[in-house]
Each structure stands twice: as C-alpha cells, then as structure tokens.
Amino acid sequence: MTEAGIVIKTEEKRALVQVIRKSACGEHCVHCGACAKNTVEIWAKNPVGAKKGESVLLELSDQKIYRAAFLVYLLPLIFFFVGYFLSGMWFANEITKVFIGGVLFVLSIVGAAVYSRKCRQEYVPAITKIVL
Questions:
Q1: Single pTM value for the model
Q2: N or C: which terminal CB in the chain sees fewer CB atoms within 10 Å?
C-alpha cells in the first residue's frame, strides 16, 4: 500500500506525516458524518531523510496489512467456531459450547493485542520517496 502525504514534523529517524484519508463509504461522507476529519497524522520511518514541509510517499507492504487484518478480524472468529464445535464433542449444552467458543474468542483477541505490542515496529510505514 502506498500513500502520499506531507511531513509536518521530524524526530531522529522518523517523521510525522499528514495523509489525506480516503473515504471508506464511497464518497458520500456528508450523509453520515463519520469522515468529518479528512486527514490523519501517521508516524513513519524516515530512511530518506525527508524534512518538514516536503511531500512524500509512504509504503507498508500488503502482506503486513493482510496479516494484521487476519489477526484482528478472522482469527477470533476461527477460534470461536473451533471452540464451539470441538466442545460439542464433550458437551451437549448449547450455553457451554457458546461459552467455550467465547473464551477462545477473547483469548485470541488478547493474543493478537500482545503480538501487536511485541511487533509494533514491524507495522510502521516507511517513507520511500520525496515527491517534488
């Protein structure tokens, strides 16, 4: 994924970049108001030495984005259904199966949170190019 932005602050080997948010609702943001703020500020690695006020390109590999989406959205659902169906082998009570599935769901979310804190630097975009 590549995004364009403007450097608004630099610190050592990283920069705060202002990026224009793309609409997630098909350019009809006026109707719901969820996208009232159309810019986002993101800390990025700055290996190219961009300075305040310069236009830059940010990049984060698609593989990392897909991995993060899997951990946050799919893994908890997989854990829930695995817990639900496997507990059905030992328990006939529906409430017990849902409870065990729910416990695994919560544990997978906690695991994803611990993993994301441990690997936080892996998911930081990098400035790849200064645009004139």
A1: 0.62
A2: C
